[in-house]
Amino acid sequence: MPQSAYPEIRKLDLFAAMAEDHFQTLMRGAYVQNFPAHIDLIAEGEPSDFLHIVLSGSVDLFAQWNGRDTSMATVRPISTFILAATIREAPYLMSARTLEKSRIVLIPSQDVRAVFDIDANFARAIVTELAQRYRAVIKTQKDLKLRTSLERLANYILRQQKRAGGGPTFGLEFEKRRLASVLGMTPENLSRAFKGLDPYGVVVDGTRITIGSQTDLERFAKPNPLIDDFTT
Amino acid sequence: MPQSAYPEIRKLDLFAAMAEDHFQTLMRGAYVQNFPAHIDLIAEGEPSDFLHIVLSGSVDLFAQWNGRDTSMATVRPISTFILAATIREAPYLMSARTLEKSRIVLIPSQDVRAVFDIDANFARAIVTELAQRYRAVIKTQKDLKLRTSLERLANYILRQQKRAGGGPTFGLEFEKRRLASVLGMTPENLSRAFKGLDPYGVVVDGTRITIGSQTDLERFAKPNPLIDDFTT
DNA sequence: CGCAGCCTTGACAAATGTCAACAAACGTGG
DNA sequence: CCACGTTTGTTGACATTTGTCAAGGCTGCG
Questions:
Q1: What is residue A223's three-state secondary structure?
Q2: Interface contact flag, A84 B131, Cβ < 8 Å
Q3: Does residue B138 sit at the A interface (CB-CB below 8 Å)?
Q4: Can you list the domains of chain B with their CATH numbers?
């Protein structure tokens, strides 16, 4: 793969502390690919042949069962996905597709496992990464089980506001259809949920959100760091 | 702590491969405690001072928000819990309480992190463990988002049947109130869901379940290894 | 310009939760 | 071992939440 991508990959927490020659080993076997939007990258159930890294663009992780499907998460640059499947040498639990034009690095899973076995720093970095992911999923599960869809939307809006800088007006990070799926509801329900937040001063104009009354919305949403903070 | 417990702990995947003196280091700082049933062990939000290991009995991991609460998982012997919080030196995301009289080992988190930093085998074991837990949570999330409560119950029954040996009659692993919470529904809804499985030959007598028609139930439940297999 | 996909809305249906009542099971203290 | 009180499970009636289906408007893109 082109060496130009090395530095940004090397800077990732996952690869920052490992020995240089081990990093080179990984990069030698890796290659970069450019994908158009809306392309399937992997399908759940397939063997986990590659660890993926999103360099640019974005990727949707989703799952299907019995004709239904749901968005599980979005991967944005620069980060990896399907690390756990790679480590356990197990089939993917989620499918992945590009949301937009994306550059993606593919590192053969066997290389990752081989280096993982000989590089303690790399192993530790993987632990840290996995522990964080694990906690993120637990938070999502709490969100799903403890809140109604209206409450989930209200808290999502507050999280997104924070991510966007904290101002009263900001944009949604993806189309509503997908947001609905991420939040575990139908597009119709999401549409009505936005209306349901009107009493708390939430105004929606296409993909543009304005929070009229911050305190009202927060009083309703009751955001909680143990569910909504994605840094800890 | 009493040395009698060492061998069974040592046999856990998490500790099996590590250097003996490192294992001794962990055990020196650890202590065993006997708890009665229904005792709170930890509360979400607290700093993660100890890695816990259930030697006997069982522990409920649950979470709360805004007056509601939900069971997230059950920990049975012999295994650890709150590993991720220990690793990340972050607050617990879940609370824990004993379901019955339980023996529990507590290892100071700082010891775990210290040994983790110097013992590559231990670090690798933690990776494997965390990757498995991560995948288990993803499966639960798919279960929650892709299935109705009736479907979740049907698949739970099939899983539990397998765990109990595969025969047509078997017992539930815990009280229905908690099962309802684990499956993400109310006790009333669970009660009716059992009735809703009557057409598929499911007969409930207290805590005793009999599957009259295996094929009918499976045709309805559509169990899927990427959701229901807890080994991969 | 015209098509395709997304978003919204209305009407309706299904799933799930709430509240209340009561029976059954359980545990404790006598 | 029993009596009592508490908890759990069940059931009915009802409310709320969420999903489904159908239609129409809007937008973006070829």
A1: coil
A2: yes
A3: yes
A4: 3-144 (2.60.120.10), 148-228 (1.10.10.10)
